[in-house]
Design brief:
This protein has a six-stranded mixed β-sheet. A six-stranded mixed β-sheet has the order 7-8-9-12-14-13, covered by helices on one side. It has a three-stranded parallel β-sheet with strand order 17-18-19. 31% of the residues lie in helices and 23% in strands. It has eleven helices and 19 strands. Heterodimer of SbcC and SbcD. Belongs to the SbcD family.
Length: 387
C-alpha cells in the first residue's frame, strides 16, 4: 500500500507579515497532483491543519477545498488534530466526512478504533492519535499523572490491544502529533512542555509498522519506521536549512517500509545573512540571496541610518532585521534577547530567581515553578477547547 505522509499545514499562518494563503493553496494543488501521479492509496495528515483554534475564514475555505479535491480522487485520507487545532471544531461532521473517505480523528476516545483499508495483501489498520494534552486526557486514558509519555503510552496500549484482535498479518500505521526524542525542533513549533519534559521516546510506538509523526517542522527520520514529514512551507527563519517535502511511503505485504521524499513548492528560499551594513550591500557572495526572504543581522558598532531601506535596495524581500554590534574585548557580549534565546519558560524563571536573590531555586522551588507553568498551559488548553 502506498501512503503519502504530510503534516503541519498551518492554514492561515503568515510568515513575518507575508500572507501565505496563496502558497498554501499551491501546496494543496501539489498534494492532489502527487496523489494522482504517484498512485497513492491513502493520504495521512498528522495534525496542525490550522494555525490556531479559530482560523480565519479564508483558511477554512481552503481546507474545505482540499477536502473536496481529495474526496473527488476517491483516495482515503486519515487526518488527526494537532496542538494548534481546535479538536472539537476540526472534528465537526467527522462521521459524515468518513462516508466520503475523509477520516478525521480528533477525539482521544477513538485512539484504539482504526480506519481499516485493504489492498491485495490484506488489511491495513490506521490508528489516529490526535494531539493528547496530558492534563485534559489523563483521566480518560486512565493515567495517574499528567505527562506526554504516559498518555501516549496509554493510547498505544489501546492500539496494540485492538491490533491483537485482528487477523494475523494485519499491517498497522499510527498517526501521532508529538515531540519524539531525537527530533530536531525549530522556532516555529509551539512549546508543549509538561512537567519539564516535552519529548517522548520512540519506543512508545513499538509494535506497529509505520508511525507518521507531526509537530516538528523539519522532515526527518527518527527510525526507519518512525518519521516526521515536517511542514510543507517555512514558518520561521530557523527553517532556512530545511528541504520542504512529504514522505511517499510503500508498505509491502509483510509490513516492510520504503520511503521517498517528494519536494514541496516553496515561494522563495530563506537566507540568514550577517555582517556590517556596508559589507552586506557589497558582498558578491550574497548575490544568490537577492531574491530570497532575508533575515539580516547587522554587526555595526554604531547603528546605521535607514538600515532597512538600504538593505531593501539590494534585498527587496528583507523581512527581519536585528542588531548585534561587535564589541571590544572585555565588554559584555550577550544581549538580553540572546540570553533568552532557546531557553524554556522554566529555565528563564529559574534564572530570574538566581538573579534576584543570588542563589538558584532548590528542588522544591523548581517543582513549584514547574507545576505553575503546567497549570497555565492546561488553563490555556481548556480555553482553546472552550472557544
Amino acid at each position: 500500500m502506498r501512503l503519502l505522509h504530510t503534516s503541519d499545514w498551518h492554514l492561515g499562518r503568515a510568515f513575518h507579515r507575508v500572507n501565505m494563503l496563496g502558497a498554501q493553496a499551491e501546496f494543496i494543488g501539489h498534494l492532489v497532483s502527487t496523489v494522482r501521479e504517484h498512485d497513492v492509496d491513502a493520504v495521512l495528515v498528522s495534525g496542525d491543519v490550522y494555525d490556531r483554534a479559530v482560523p480565519p475564514l479564508a483558511a477554512v475555505e481552503l481546507f474545505d477545498d482540499a477536502l473536496h479535491r481529495l474526496a473527488d480522487l476517491g483516495v482515503p485520507t486519515v487526518m488527526i488534530s494537532g496542538n494548534h487545532d481546535s479538536a472539537r471544531r476540526l472534528g465537526v461532521g467527522a462521521g459524515l466526512m468518513g462516508r466520503a473517505g475523509i477520516h478525521l480523528r480528533t477525539d482521544p476516545k477513538t485512539c484504539g478504533t482504526p480506519v481499516v483499508l485493504a489492498d491485495d495483501h490484506g488489511d491495513v489498520a490506521f490508528y489516529g492519535l490526535p494531539y493528547l494534552e496530558p492534563a485534559l486526557v489523563k483521566d480518560g486514558l486512565g493515567v495517574d499523572k499528567a505527562g506526554h509519555e504516559a498518555v501516549l503510552a496509554a493510547a498505544m496500549e489501546q492500539v496494540r490491544a485492538d491490533l491483537a484482535t485482528r487477523a494475523p498479518g494485519t499491517r498497522s500505521v499510527v498517526l501521532a502529533h508529538a515531540f519524539v526524542t531525537g527530533g530536531e525542533p525549530s522556532d516555529s513549533e509551539r512549546d508543549i512542555t509538561v512537567g519539564g519534559v516535552a519529548a517522548v521516546p520512540a519506543g512508545v510506538f513499538d509494535g506497529v509498522d509505520y508511525v507518521a509523526l507531526g509537530h516538528l517542522h523539519g522532515c526527518q527520520t527518527i527510525a526507519e519506521r518512525v518519521r516526521y514529514s515536517g511542514s510543507p512551507l517555512p514558518y520561521s527563519f530557523s527553517e532556512a536549512g530545511h528541504r520542504k517535502s512529504m514522505w511517499l511511503v510503500d508498505l509491502d505485504a509483510g509490513g516492510a517500509v520504503t520511503a521517498e521524499r517528494i519536494d514541496c513548492p516553496v515561494p522563495r528560499p530563506l537566507a540568514r545573512i550577517r555582517g556590517t551594513l556596508e559589507g552586506l550591500l557589497a558582498d558578491p557572495a550574497l548575490r544568490p540571496h537577492e531574491e530570497s526572504w532575508i533575515e539580516a543581522t547587522l554587526t555595526d558598532a554604531v547603528r546605521p541610518a535607514d538600515p532597512m531601506a538600504r538593505l531593501a535596495e539590494r534585498f527587496p524581500h528583507t523581512l527581519s532585521l536585528a542588531f548585534d554590534p561587535e564589541r571590544v574585548p572585555g565588554e559584555p557580549a550577550v544581549s538580553y534577547a540572546r540570553r533568552l534565546a532557546g531557553r524554556s519558560d522554566q529555565e528563564i524563571a529559574e534564572d530570574f530567581v538566581t538573579h534576584v536573590r543570588g542563589a538558584g531555586p532548590d528542588a522544591h522551588e523548581q517543582a513549584v515553578l514547574r507545576d505553575a507553568f503546567d497549570a497555565v498551559r492546561a488553563d490555556e488548553a481548556v480555553r482553546e477547547v472552550a472557544r
